[in-house]
Amino acid sequence: MKDKLIVFKIGTSSLTNHMGDLDAEKLAQITSQLAQLHHQGYQLVLVTSGSIAAGFRRLGFDKRPKHIADKQASAAVGQGLLIEHYTTNLMQDGIVSAQVLLTQDDFKDPRRYNNAAQALQVLLKRRAIPIINENDTIAVDEIKVGDNDTLSAQVAGLLKADLLVLLTDVAGLYTANPRKDPQAQAIARVDNITPELFQIASGAGTANGTGGMVTKIQAARLATMAGVPVFITSSQLKNSLPKAVKQEIQGTYFTAQTKAFNQKKQWLAFYAPSQADIFVDAGAEKAMVAKGHSLLLSGISEFSGNFQRNDIVSVYSQTSGKLIGKGRARFSRLVVEELLQFKHPEGTFIHRDDWVTLL
Ligand SMILES: Nc1ncnc2c1ncn2[C@@H]1O[C@H](COP(=O)(O)OP(=O)(O)O)[C@@H](O)[C@H]1O
Ligand SMILES: N[C@@H](CCC(=O)OP(=O)(O)O)C(=O)O
Questions:
Q1: Is residue 183's pLDDT more than 90?
Q2: Where in the cell is it found (predicted)?
Q3: Rounded to the nearest whole angstrom, what is the distance from the C-alpha of residue 174 to the centroid of ligand 1?
Q4: The domain 5-264 is classified under which CATH number: 3.30.390.30, 3.30.70.260, 3.40.1160.10, 3.30.559.10?
Q5: Quick check: CB of 130 below 6 Å from ligand 2?
Q6: For atom 2 of ligand 2, which residue has the closest CA?
């Protein structure tokens, strides 16, 4: 399938042995399948975990460390070793790979966000495979994506991928954790990610993984809102990568939303820091959510926090108290306060082009 762009995410659980160390044989299985797909004409991106697993023992820890600074130091040692495996293996098939390390800051700052997209697009156009991980060594809480499931969804959305495949150690999402509940049933397809779905997903399956199915469902939510379908499957089945691309293997398929966010709206929805909270009345809520209309000044019932013109604000329903979306303010708080003194305040506070519904 020429030009189809697939983002694969491979978790620590799929790259390690029972001691938690990087397993070169498992990694080689992945690279040979990537090479196969590359030669078929697919554009590929790999988001890979494993830097901590690859580094901790060399740094003198006898098991995977738990403290943040120890993990960061291990990642600094392991990232180089991890990328060396990918580069060497892919080079044997004549494929150029590229290391890209990202943090949440790269998504929050619109300039860095565009830069990341452009650099990745050049790599893809030139048939290289970007090998992405979080920049663990420098990522403190404030700038952390936190898990590679989410990072892969962010990347898939940014690049408008045709499919995101999350490869793990179970063949998709089950009605309960299959490691703990033998009665758990496989779920083949999810059209709607409801809050109930999160309840069936507990944390990581092994001491090596981060987040388990919860972060995978969160990732699926983000990617599908950005218009990218998601397939969760096991990396341990034979030829799982080529089969996953066509869903010819057991797994869970999440359908993409039809009204997907474009790049500008993804930034607004997922990354833009919000400066203030605006509460709107029932009429405005209906007009914005159901009809996609702009928010007029007359629909504002309350606000908290200070905001300037062009700042991003969160909009809540006055009736339910729930967050309904985010948008760009056309006036500062000072001006809004003045305008709302009028009996019939006129003007658009958030234009529909600068608005995303998040219900
Ligand atoms: N409802 C569920 N369906 C499938 N797996 C689940 C579920 N709830 C929890 N899990 C656990 O999630 C694990 C996969 O997540 P994780 O260990 O973080 O893997 P990775 O390193 O691949 O990201 C599975 O091994 C499984 O034990
Ligand atoms: N960035 C970290 C992994 C973070 C992570 O999300 O791990 P996992 O749940 O195994 O995909 C690393 O390279 O070890």
A1: yes
A2: Cytoplasm
A3: 9
A4: 3.40.1160.10
A5: no
A6: 49
pLDDT on residue 172: 96
209 marked as part of a ligand binding site: no
| Of the candidates 187, 184, 194, the residue with the CA atom closest to the CA atom of residue 224 | 194
Interval 327-355 mean pLDDT: 94
43, containing H or E segment:
strand 43-48
Domain formed by 273-357, architecture: Roll (2.30)
- Of the CA atoms within 13 Å of residue 308, those in its CB half-sphere come to 0
How high is the mean pLDDT of the chain?
93
Q: For ligand 2, say whether the CB of 210 is within 6 Å of any of its atoms.
A: yes
pLDDT of residue 259: 84
Query: Which part of the chain is CATH 3.40.1160.10?
Result: 5-264
* Whole-structure pTM value: 0.91
Testing ligand 2's pocket by substitution, the residue of 103, 147, 214 carrying the most ligand atoms inside 8 A of its CB is 147
Please check the confidence at residue 121 and state whether its pLDDT lies above 60: yes
Ligand 1 mean position, distance from CA 58 (Å)? 27
12, 98 Cβ separation under 8 angstroms: no
Distance 300 CA to ligand 1 centre (A): 43
Helices (H), the chain: 24-39, 51-55, 68-92, 105-108, 110-125, 148-158, 195-199, 212-225, 240-245, 263-266, 282-291, 333-339
Q: What is the pLDDT of residue 204?
A: 64
**Which atom in ligand 2 lies closest to the alpha carbon of residue 13?**
10
Contact (CB, 8 A) for 206 and 13: yes
Is the shortest distance between the CB of 51 and ligand 2 below 6 Å?
yes
Task: Kindly tell me if the per-residue pLDDT of 2 is higher than 60.
Answer: no
Judged by its nearest atom, the ligand closest to the C-alpha of residue 101 is 2
| 191 has pLDDT over 90 | yes
Tell me the sheet residues that pair with 232: 166, 252
Residue 142 has pLDDT above 80, yes or no: no
Testing ligand 2's pocket by substitution, the residue of 7, 134, 213 carrying the most ligand atoms inside 8 A of its CB is: 134
Is residue 50 lining ligand 2, measured as CB closer than 6 Å? yes
